[in-house]
Amino acid sequence: MFHKILIANRGEIALRVICACKDLGIRTVAVYSEADRHSLHVRFADEAICIGPAKSSRSYLDIPAVISAAEITNVDAIHPGYGFLSENAGFAEVCEASGIKFIGPPPPVTRNMGLKQRARAEMREAGVPILPGSEGILQSPEEALDTAERIGYPIMLKASAGGGGRGMRIVRETSELPNLMAQAQSEAQAAFSSPDLYMEKLIEAPRHIEFQVLADEYGNAAVLGERECSIQRRHQKLLEEAPSTAVSPDLRRIMSQRLEEAMIRIGYRNAGTVEFLMDENGDLYFIEVNARIQVEHPVSEAISGIDLVKSQILIAAGHRLEEIVRRPVELNGHAIECRINAENPDTFAPSPGRITGLNLPGGIGVRVDTAAYTDGVIPPYYDSLVAKLITHGKDRSEAIARMRRALDMFVVEGIYTTIPLHQQILRNEDFLAGRLDTKFLSRMGVASARA
Amino acid sequence: MFHKILIANRGEIALRVICACKDLGIRTVAVYSEADRHSLHVRFADEAICIGPAKSSRSYLDIPAVISAAEITNVDAIHPGYGFLSENAGFAEVCEASGIKFIGPPPPVTRNMGLKQRARAEMREAGVPILPGSEGILQSPEEALDTAERIGYPIMLKASAGGGGRGMRIVRETSELPNLMAQAQSEAQAAFSSPDLYMEKLIEAPRHIEFQVLADEYGNAAVLGERECSIQRRHQKLLEEAPSTAVSPDLRRIMSQRLEEAMIRIGYRNAGTVEFLMDENGDLYFIEVNARIQVEHPVSEAISGIDLVKSQILIAAGHRLEEIVRRPVELNGHAIECRINAENPDTFAPSPGRITGLNLPGGIGVRVDTAAYTDGVIPPYYDSLVAKLITHGKDRSEAIARMRRALDMFVVEGIYTTIPLHQQILRNEDFLAGRLDTKFLSRMGVASARA
Amino acid sequence: MSNDEIKQLIQLVKESGISELEVQRGENRVRIRSGALAQADLVIPHAPAPAQPAPSVPAAPSPVSSAQPSDAVLVKSPIVGTYYECPSPGSPPFVKVGDTVEPGHVLCIIESMKLMNEIEAEIAGTVVSKLMENGRPVEYGEALFAIRPR
Amino acid sequence: MSNDEIKQLIQLVKESGISELEVQRGENRVRIRSGALAQADLVIPHAPAPAQPAPSVPAAPSPVSSAQPSDAVLVKSPIVGTYYECPSPGSPPFVKVGDTVEPGHVLCIIESMKLMNEIEAEIAGTVVSKLMENGRPVEYGEALFAIRPR
Fold it and tell me: Which of A19, A298, A359 sits opposite B373 (nearest CB)?
């Protein structure tokens, strides 16, 4: 087992990893930027090293600074949390070269999963359903028409080099295609100096459903059920739950089996998440693999009874999956997570500042993951997550009742938070009926939810 | 279902009942003394009524004040919590007479359980093992010698009218008995104006083990496993866990079956606890029934997945046990509760005052039940409980690791608390091995633990 | 409590160097802090804060009363219950503003657990205001009357 | 920061009526509160608090240095790593107290990820103290030298 672990992150996830290390009796090293010197992860780690100024490119994203901190404190492993360096294969390679175990998948796997077309190809080979689309770049309008005919309208044209919505067009019928394709090409040319487009089937109002995977270093993998993450605004998840109301026990069993095979086949290791879109017919389409622990991992922990961060460390230390997961995987009850962000709940404008008053909810079925405290500051330099509020109940309605109660008793003064928005979601009829998709928030009338 | 419930209590248990009511969608009325006007139970209830000055005899124990508050707020039920009026059959009768449902057993049952000899008789008839002793008052030294011979030395002589250790003698062999009995009689006469003595078998270092019961109003009862409460000082529990390391699955099954039959037979209703002593051979002896929710109920909630306070309300509202408890009762993992009291951890002197700094632990497997907050005051008038810290894990060692971590991250400034004492217990070898009895704390060297 | 009085208190806080001062004068209360301790605001109960039991200096006008002269004392409810100003529905009230009362004079009834508890004057004086509406529930310590002692 | 300066600041807090004042002057920092906000003590990290990056007014003596005159500026570590005062084991240090340096003069090496990073003087002046022990790990922003500008 590791003797000492450096946590290359901040905020609640740094504290989360410290908790897992304490539970395993492993010493911890926190790193922090000058903006975070009064943070709880600094207080509760056994050692703490300042690695740079507030700007994350010069601190939490600065590989030499993090590795040097690891070297001067003699750690034998690094946990990257989520965000920052967590899916940076180069960082994982530097760790390896420095003789420090990176707690995550091996660099080639992370790199392949980062290359989306490569990930799609590997998943398709492994028998996982993929969102239908063109085989790479569209070579001509004729090929585009044929492909669209094959996968069925509506379709989406996307710039290969693109992002941020530019060079994208929704096409609903054959007659529109040539014209819209030409527009998208010239827009892509202007924006990215390349007119290359590819095509994907458009799912107008998909659910976002993801499966939690654990894989050891000996070719064993286990799926711990799925999470429903459809409540998003601008592709940022706001409320997650497990299980999904749209996944039947049969579908869960089939998908778990296929994904376990696929993850073994691609040599996946440690914790990971396989993301899917679900269309109106309940069919799932693979979109990507997140090769790290996710923000919303606690809902899977609640229903599986398995500490995922502890499992990450055990797997990295060479433990076998059978010591961690009992087969068959049993899931109990229902869990919900609300992300309490420092944001204006109406405009979503960030609301950093000093927390002048704080009451954390507690009691039965409530878990709070936070690095916030009375008189503590949410700095403007990083993400706006203040706390994750998780409730667990024997069924969805008990989890919802507990979440409503916990939100009512969660008091944060001095900054705006998303608490009122969550209270509104938890009273919404569609939410209560489990009718969810990624358009949920914009339908609910949250103006800025629209991408 | 009830429309509105008055909570005739304060502190963490008042907040606990408010949580259960919120989870059921029931409105709440808090009552408070002048010392508690800034308490969280006042803040989080829908209504709050001041019922008197700080002294509990004139507020929380003042039956007319509580009933009047219930009448002017039009509640249809009262939850008494623990302590105060919770086992006062007279109060339950006044509630009944006022047309308000008392959430607890019917008054005659509470009264019978309060009369210890009566409770013993009823339990013996129901086939529950009782601590061996004399049949009522000892009539002569000869009867005493015969009785001692029958139940085996060592034995304890106790003043029938007594309490507080006066008129008590431990007798280890026949030759000592006549002399010590005479001493005890004259001490009893002097202290209580009655020389009457009775005899009980002495268990030198018993475990304190109690079983959690739920019974509905239709003659159904369920036992939700046991709790180990041996870590006490001066008969006050300090750390509890479930299950007990000394109860085998077989013993649990047998005891559960007998106790369910016994509770049905005595007409028990709502939540209750049956307390036992366990001797060195692992034999259990009934001591008493607590006809209320207990401080340490969360450990049973953790392993059973059943919300006991919610169940109390459902049962009082006429729900059937089968809607609340699934058969057979399944218990999962292990749970520990540490009572964080406002006390000097060495001397146990009370330490009321203002909490100037507070960090509540959170994260996986941690539950906190508290009414404390930064800048809040622990008044000197009531008990010293500041918070209950509960951890749950898949086994005892995971629960212990999580408790150690949570204690390390639990910061209370401005008052002394029992946190350091708990940290010491959680490092103790006997504790880690599960070797517990009521002498544990005094062996550990906590001077004032000795009664 | 006048603004001038509060100003003086603020001055007092500043001069003494303390961080917080809470003063209750009759029904009025002021808390002065020299800084931001907003957490305390968390716990001000939403129910009306009942006054301290020991009346001292006169109180500010209550919703149903006229202004109280500065030499009156408050009669507060010793129990929780329902306030009645007259012995039975339709009958005249026990006391009116301007009445003079002697110790033992019944001022009102508080019904508690179906019992009609007569609340008596403890001092001799003139009723200067009635602070509670007939039939309203009262908490422990709520002010019922102001009486100017004779 | 002298005791007299601190006294003046306390006076200022009292006069202004504010509850908290935090002042940083070079390596010195004082936080004055007029009341009990002990919560803040919760979060003072146990690791040595590194100094602010922008040196301004001179600092108090550091454990290994002699007293610093009030016109020196601090050279702080721009990276995390291990501090070496000489180019190789046994060789003389890059600088000694009393040496004069020009911009670009190498003051020390910080080893980071097996790379030896030379830290150079940015101003001309005299080395008045060396604040770090040879071979010790340094955090970002830790003070290494005090130099009196010429």
Answer: A359
